[in-house]
């Protein structure tokens, strides 16, 4: 049994974005102190943390000094260098363990883990260099998707190859570095499950969420879509097995493609709270952020029960294009919860906030959420 880390203790977070911000809000509500470490200043998490330590993740002395002042370290995005997690764990527990980060932050390692453990994946080939790409295309076939092996997110570092003669252009467009080639999956929908695992192996999940993307970036999430119970059971079973196999302590999201024939393909893993679980902040007994806190502090996991049908829409920087947004109009829907992450600069594709909207059912909530988002810019158009 791990010793519980009780309220009053200090949670250290590597990373300082919106996921850390929402974790910090949950932690402070329960009487914890929170420290963040990242290269940024006045960050989304730093704004609500007790301490914002500014440093480079590769400065291991700075990471060690940070870890020495907290009771447990977790992370809020997976591109923290593995060595930073390793350094921190010489001083305090790091949860999930650094090995989870190591696997999930590199597409080839992640795919090798998934396929090796028998989880369903799209066909894939490792592409260490340009010559390997031609071989990979011959094996995987077209259409295919070329993805950088590391540090990709939200469709960045990806190129679709429809025909072998597009190989060179695709290779250049992802930066001509180590990559993975995946078979293109003709899916019916994209779904995910956010799940948590405690120090003693306790498991909890937030059910299936349907995710609708725009330009490869999550746009709308609707929990509990109308899909076959058998598929729901299979998704949850896979998620449970993934968390067990990786010995995760914390929250992890498994993203899937649901194919037209009802079969599932695991797209990727995110070893932290996930955008598709943001609805839980307002709509569940225990949010994914409180759940992460409970798991990493060796506390019992909370109920994931959803209180009302709802949907979540992202607010990307593109919306800020025309200047001021009409918050009054969006907040005119009294069943809406607005989250803004405190980012000073709105850039296209940048996640600035989200809204969770309640409704009679998921689709009704999604309609209301989209209407509220449209209302933000209606007067400026
Ligand atoms: P990722 O960053 O890998 O999650 O990819 C971002 C988005 O690109 C996914 O949510 C899908 O919409 C699309 N995508 C990625 N990989 C594939 C694939 N192998 N086949 C079809 N669409 C894909």
Write up this protein.
The longest helix is centred in the middle third of the chain and has 17 residues, at 229-245. The protein has an eight-stranded antiparallel beta sheet with strand order 13-12-9-10-11-14-16-15. A four-stranded parallel beta sheet has the order 3-2-1-4, with helices on both faces. A four-stranded antiparallel beta sheet has the order 5-8-6-7, with helices on both faces. With 381 residues, it is α+β, with helices and mostly antiparallel strands. The protein has helices at residues 18-29, 60-68, 82-88, 98-104, 107-116, 130-140, 167-173, 229-245, 280-283, 288-296, 327-330, 362-378, and strands at residues 10-14, 33-38, 51-54, 72-75, 124-127, 144-148, 158-161, 179-183, 187-197, 203-214, 217-223, 250-259, 264-270, 310-316, 336-340, 351-358. Helix 1 (18-29) packs across helix 10, helix 2 runs parallel beside helix 3 and helix 3 packs antiparallel against helix 4 (98-104). Residues 122, 145, 152, 155, 182, 184-185, 190, 213, 216, 255, 267-268 line the site of adenosine monophosphate (AMP).
């Amino acid at each position: 049994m791990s010793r519980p880390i009780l309220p009053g203790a200090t949670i250290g977070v590597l990373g300082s974005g919106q996921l850390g911000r929402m974790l910090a809000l949950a932690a402070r509500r329960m009487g914890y102190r929170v420290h963040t470490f990242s290269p940024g200043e006045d960050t989304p998490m730093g704004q609500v943390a007790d301490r914002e330590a500014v440093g480079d993740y590769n400065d291991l002395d700075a990471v060690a000094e940070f870890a020495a002042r907290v009771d447990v370290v977790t992370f809020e995005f997976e591109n923290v260098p593995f060595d930073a997690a390793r350094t921190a764990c010489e001083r305090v527990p790091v949860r999930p363990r650094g090995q989870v980060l190591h696997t999930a932050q590199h597409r080839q390692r992640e795919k090798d883990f998934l396929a090796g453990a028998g989880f369903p994946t799209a066909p894939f080939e490792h592409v260490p260099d340009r010559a390997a790409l031609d071989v990979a295309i011959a094996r995987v076939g077209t259409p295919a998707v070329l993805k950088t092996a590391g540090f990709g997110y939200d469709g960045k570092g990806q190129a679709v190859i429809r025909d072998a003669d597009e190989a060179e252009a695709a290779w250049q467009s992802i930066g001509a570095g180590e990559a993975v080639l995946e078979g293109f999956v003709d899916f019916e929908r994209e779904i995910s499950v956010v799940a948590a695992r405690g120090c003693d192996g306790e498991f909890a999940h937030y059910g299936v969420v349907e995710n609708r993307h725009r330009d490869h970036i999550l746009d709308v999430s609707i929990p509990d879509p109308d899909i076959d119970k058998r598929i729901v059971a299979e998704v949850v079973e896979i998620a449970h097995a993934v968390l067990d196999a990786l010995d995760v302590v914390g929250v992890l999201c498994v993203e899937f493609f649901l194919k037209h024939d009802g079969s599932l393909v695991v797209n990727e893993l995110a070893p932290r709270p996930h955008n598709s679980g943001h609805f839980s902040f307002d709509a569940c007994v225990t949010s994914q952020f409180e759940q992460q806190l409970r798991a990493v502090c060796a506390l019992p996991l909370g109920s994931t029960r959803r209180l009302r049908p709802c949907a979540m829409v992202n607010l990307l920087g593109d919306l800020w294009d025309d200047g001021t947004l009409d918050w009054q109009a969006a907040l005119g829907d009294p069943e809406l919860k607005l989250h803004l992450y405190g980012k000073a600069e709105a850039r296209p594709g940048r996640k600035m906030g989200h809204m969770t909207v309640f409704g009679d059912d998921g689709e009704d909530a999604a309609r209301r959420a989209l209407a509220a988002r449209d209302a933000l810019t209606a007067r400026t158009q």
